[in-house]
Amino acid sequence: MPVKFDVKTLERFRSMTPQEIYREVTDAVHQAEGPKGSEDFVDALDSLVDEGILSWDQIQNFESEEDN
Q: What is the pTM for the complete model shown?
Protein backbone atom coordinates (compact mmCIF):
# COMPACT_ATOMS: atom_id res chain seq x y z
CA MET A 1 0.00 0.00 0.00
CA PRO A 2 1.54 3.33 -1.02
CA VAL A 3 2.38 5.83 1.68
CA LYS A 4 0.39 9.05 1.30
CA PHE A 5 1.16 12.23 3.21
CA ASP A 6 -1.62 14.53 4.35
CA VAL A 7 -1.38 18.31 4.16
CA LYS A 8 -0.41 18.63 7.85
CA THR A 9 2.45 16.19 7.43
CA LEU A 10 3.70 17.93 4.30
CA GLU A 11 3.69 21.26 6.14
CA ARG A 12 5.55 19.71 9.08
CA PHE A 13 8.14 18.31 6.67
CA ARG A 14 8.76 21.83 5.38
CA SER A 15 10.08 22.82 8.83
CA MET A 16 12.36 19.79 9.19
CA THR A 17 15.88 19.17 7.94
CA PRO A 18 16.20 17.03 4.82
CA GLN A 19 17.84 14.27 6.89
CA GLU A 20 14.94 14.22 9.37
CA ILE A 21 12.43 14.04 6.52
CA TYR A 22 14.29 11.20 4.81
CA ARG A 23 14.43 9.16 8.04
CA GLU A 24 10.76 9.75 8.80
CA VAL A 25 9.66 8.81 5.29
CA THR A 26 11.78 5.68 5.38
CA ASP A 27 10.26 4.72 8.75
CA ALA A 28 6.74 5.39 7.44
CA VAL A 29 7.27 3.09 4.46
CA HIS A 30 8.68 0.35 6.72
CA GLN A 31 5.65 0.65 9.02
CA ALA A 32 3.04 0.67 6.24
CA GLU A 33 0.81 -2.37 5.95
CA GLY A 34 1.49 -5.05 3.41
CA PRO A 35 4.57 -5.99 1.44
CA LYS A 36 7.06 -3.26 0.68
CA GLY A 37 9.41 -2.87 -2.23
CA SER A 38 11.80 -0.28 -3.57
CA GLU A 39 8.95 1.20 -5.60
CA ASP A 40 7.17 2.13 -2.37
CA PHE A 41 10.19 4.11 -1.20
CA VAL A 42 10.58 5.78 -4.59
CA ASP A 43 6.88 6.69 -4.72
CA ALA A 44 6.95 8.20 -1.22
CA LEU A 45 10.10 10.20 -1.93
CA ASP A 46 8.85 11.21 -5.38
CA SER A 47 5.76 12.76 -3.80
CA LEU A 48 8.05 14.95 -1.65
CA VAL A 49 10.09 15.95 -4.70
CA ASP A 50 6.84 16.90 -6.46
CA GLU A 51 5.91 19.06 -3.44
CA GLY A 52 9.31 20.78 -3.54
CA ILE A 53 10.23 19.49 -0.09
CA LEU A 54 13.23 17.36 -1.14
CA SER A 55 15.28 17.10 -4.30
CA TRP A 56 16.55 13.91 -5.92
CA ASP A 57 20.11 15.16 -5.33
CA GLN A 58 19.43 15.30 -1.59
CA ILE A 59 17.88 11.83 -1.63
CA GLN A 60 20.83 10.35 -3.51
CA ASN A 61 23.20 11.95 -0.99
CA PHE A 62 21.31 10.34 1.91
CA GLU A 63 21.42 6.96 0.22
CA SER A 64 25.17 7.35 -0.38
CA GLU A 65 25.72 8.24 3.29
CA GLU A 66 23.78 5.14 4.39
CA ASP A 67 25.99 2.93 2.23
CA ASN A 68 29.13 4.19 3.98
A: 0.81
